[in-house]
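Thread: pyridoxal-5'-phosphate complex, take 2
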Amino acid sequence: MPLKLPIYLDHHATTPVDSRVLEAMLPFFAEDFGNPSSQTHSFGWRAEAAVEDARERLARALGAADPREIVFTSGTTESDNLALKGLARAGRRRGDHLVTALTEHPAVLDACRALEAEGFRVTRLPVDAQGLLDPDDVARALTDRTLLVSVMAANSEIGVLQPLEAIGRICRERGVLLHSDAAQAVGKLPLDVRALGVDLLSFCAHKLYGPKGVGALYVRRDRPRVALEPLLHGGGQELGRRPGTLPVPLIVGFARAVEICLAELPVESQRLSNLRDQLWSQLSRELPDLRRNGHPERRLPGNLSVCFEGVEADAILVGLREVALSTGSACASGSGEPSHVLRALGLPDALARSTVRFGIGRANTSEELAWLIQLVRELRARRTRAGPPRHRSASSP
Ligand SMILES: Cc1ncc(COP(=O)(O)O)c(C=O)c1O
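Output below.
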C-alpha cells in the first residue's frame, strides 16, 4: 500500500483526536449540551453526571484517592500556572522559595519568573549531560522557607524521564510539596500520584489523542491537604479553584482518551520504543556523526532527539518536507535563541541548532520510518555531491 504523505512525526507537539474519543464526545455538543452547573433541570443533571464520571475515571487513572482532587483547566499551561502561582500565593506566610529545573517547560519557568516579580525566590537546578536531575541537588536546595519543588515527569524536547519517585521521597521527608508537569508522560508511562509522592500534577488531553482546550491539575486533598489561591474569580465551579463553565464534550473526550492510552499502554509503549530504536540504529548507520540527546534509556518510548552535526535543523526540515518534524531549537518567543533544554545539557549553540526532534505516535509504522531513512540516504548523497555544508555561526541572529 502506498504511504500517505505527509508523515506526522511531531506527537510531542500535539496528537490527532482518536475516533473513539470523538465518538464519546459527539453527544455532548448538541444533544446533551447542558451546563453542569444548572441544578434545576435534566439538561444540567446529565451534563454534571458526565463531568463527574470523567473526573472519577481520571482520578482512577492517576491513582488519586478522591475524584475531587481533579481540577479541570484549559490545558497544561493553565494547570502549571495554577499549581505554582496558586500554591505560592496561598503559602506566602509559610515560605517564599521554590525549586525547579533549568529544563522545565516555559509554562513552569515563566510562572516562576512571574512569582519572582512578586517577591518569591526560585532555585533553578542544572541537569547532567543526559538531561537528568540529581535528587541530591534537590535535597541540597531545600530550605525551611521552601514551599514547592516543581519537576517535570518527561521532557517535551529530549524525552528524558526525571527521577520523580526519589525526588518525591526527599520532598516528603522534608515536608515540601512536589508538583510535576506530566503533559508528556500521562498515558505514555504508568503514573501513580500516591506511589510517586506527587502532590500536584499537570496534564492535558491533546498530547494523548484527546481534544485541545482541556487539561487538569491533580491537587492532593489529604496528608497533606494542598491549598491553592485561584487564578480566576467567578462562579464557584471546581470547588472555587477554577471558576468558569466546564467544557463538557472536551472533558468527556479527555477521560476517554486517557483510558484508551492506559488500556493500550503496555503493547503501545513497546511498539513505540521498537520503532524509535529502529529509527536511531538506521539513522546512525547512515550518518556516523549523528548524536543522540538525552539519556538513552530513561526516555519516552516515542522520543528521539538527534543532532545532525554540521547541518542546520531548518535545512533538514526543508529536505524532509514530507515529514512533519520539529527542530530542537524551536523557540516559542521567536528570539532565535537555541533551546534552553539543549543549552542546559551543555550543547554548544551550533549543535543545538542542528537538532531535530522525532515524536513517534500511534499511527506511525515501520514502513514510514523505512521511507524516512531512504529519504535521508538520498539527501546525504545529494549533499555529498554538492560539497561540504555551510554552517551559520553560533553568533549569527
Ligand atoms: C511538558 C509540557 N508542559 C506544558 C505544555 C503546554 O501544554 P498545553 O498546550 O496543554 O498548554 C507542553 C506542551 O507542549 C508540554 O510538553
